[in-house]
Amino acid sequence: MPRAFTPKVITANALLEGDAIWFTENNEWSRDIADAELITDETHADLRLIEAQAFADQIAGAYLADAKQTENGPAPTHFREEFRTRGPSNYHHGKQAEA
Amino acid sequence: MYKYDDFDEAFVRERVAQFRGQVERRVDGSLTEDEFKPFRLMNGLYLQLHAYMLRVAIPYGTLNSRQMNQLAFIAEKWDKGYGHFTTRQNIQYNWPKLPDVPDMLEALADVEMHAIQTSGNTIRNVTADHFAGAAGDEIADPRPVAELLRQWSTDHPEFQALPRKFKIAVSGAENDRAVLRAHDVAVQIVEKDGQRGYRIFVGGGLGRTPMIGKVLRDFLPEADLLPYVEAVVSVWNLLGRRDNKYKARIKITVHEHGIEEISERVEQRFAEIRPSFTGVDQKLFAEIKEHFAEPAYKSSATDAFDAYKAANPAFQSWADTNLAEHKNSEYAIVSISLKSHGATPGDASSEQMRTMADLALRLGHDELRISHEQNVILPHVHKSDLPEIYNTLREEGLATANIGLISDIIACPGMDYCALATARSIPIAQEIATRFDELKLEHEVGLLKIKISGCINACGHHHVGHIGILGLDRAGVENYQITLGGDGTEDAAIGERAGPGFSADEIIPAIERLVLGYLDIRDSADETFLQTYRRLGMEPFKAILYPEKAEANAA
Q1: Between B47, B473, B477, which is nearest A13 by CB?
Q2: Is the CB of residue B416 less than 8 Å away from at least one CB of chain A?
Q3: Are residues B142 and B36 in the same domain?
Q4: What is the tens place of the pLDDT at every residue in A30-66?
Q5: Number of compact structural domains in chain B
Q6: So what's the pLDDT on residue A1?
Q7: Under an 8 A CB cutoff, do B27 and A57 touch?
Q8: pLDDT at B389
Q9: Which molecular function terms from Gene Ontology are attached (chain B) (predicted)?
Q10: Same domain, B278 and B386
Q11: What are the DSSP calls for B423-457, one per residue?
């Protein structure tokens, strides 16, 4: 039996800085996962990933990552993706330092 | 130290210029990521969780003060003011920006360094015993051999698209400080009947299928080194499993075909190519050796060292723990710990790098080494200079007296940085070190090597830790497996898994239980953790780690 599709966001790294970024409904890339488009349909996800990958001169390595809806917008469900929204735990570097 | 000739210089500069063009074409959109990725990896540039990462080769872990100062400058100018020294004697920068990388590579080229072959399916940075040239127990300095192998393997046209990466280590001593038996090929300088030669190991490696290297040739005449190693790599290049990257390393090839068959094939290939090595390599080797002449040792009284030691308990503790015997009895080998309690293993700030560089220049014959245990070594220090070295290091937070102790932990970057990681390593190392510092027990516990990897690829060498910790993703939660009894020395052994893993909250108490339990069952204060494990086996340690299970069994 095929696995049920779980909600996803499209994420990548910014080409110049390598910073984690997310693809929005308006075909823009945001540094904040809360701005991302939460995708609940598998066919739509595949299509949006192709569209996201077309931004080859802005991003690197786009992929679909599990996410959930929260009051503030989409949020990660897995700890790896959560770290990407924050930065490393040993120094106050990355996104946590920019907020 | 080896000095670049015109050819080396031109080659490295040309590669920087090529990469500059490639970055420009990537940024303007003419290259896609798929097209660009192989180019950036050829130049040591990875894309990690939060940023790019630049891995710079430090051949056989040797640096002079000028190079260390340049590493500090690069960290400050283009990164966040620090660098991370790795288990392969490299340095990694965690925050470079893509457009800056060509300038970083240019700055490296200015001090005869580069990031070539620090990634990809090539022969990687050749590593060596970090006490090379200073240790009393070595037959010869292994670094000329490592340099010869470096020159031979760099840009070798036959070996740019190997089945997988290939790691070579070299040592000149029977005491193995370079983890020879965990390398694809290892070269140990040996002597037989007054002749110098090499013992060649093959098929060692950690990762998902850990293997201890096997002896392929017990004695290889000195002049046969390059053709023989070339024969080994070329046999594997044909036989290696390109169909499955998890089976592509030479350890699997050796395992599948057997050491006898590999040996026969290597000898056959060796016989074919040996005549094409007409002695140019040996001439080159002789020239390289001149670059590694012994330093001009000074000779003066060392009683000031003894007096300072007697008067200063903190210095004495540091001297007892962080100094190793030098072949010149007036000298010592200084290990500078990059493991101050609670800090990130292997990280050094630009200021710390400059302090170490300055000490090396003034008081250490201008030599520094990076150890695979992620510390920095001053290999040649006159004993009379040790008090000054110690006091200067102390001011920079570099005088932690813990070499070889429980807080001298190897940890890979783990999921704080690495895209391959399945769990974090650094916070576990920080918490263990902090906890045992609070307990004030680490000197009583004595020699104990904890090694932590954040994924099965085992960059943190957990398989050869006396206590190994492997971080995994278990159903979406970080989980840590403990292995016991690993050993990376000449008595190499792969650690055995103790049982079910522990959550991030449970792992520190589990390690504490394990170490306190060991204190109860060791037969004397002189019996190390590893010796106790070897004497008693896994069972008592299991009972300590899983007390509930032990109670249930007893009931």
Answers
A1: B47
A2: yes
A3: no
A4: 999 999 999 999 999 999 999 999 999 999 999 999 9
A5: 4
A6: 60
A7: yes
A8: 98
A9: 4 iron, 4 sulfur cluster binding; heme binding; metal ion binding; oxidoreductase activity
A10: no
A11: S--HHHHHHHHHHHHHHT-HHHH-S--EEEESSTT
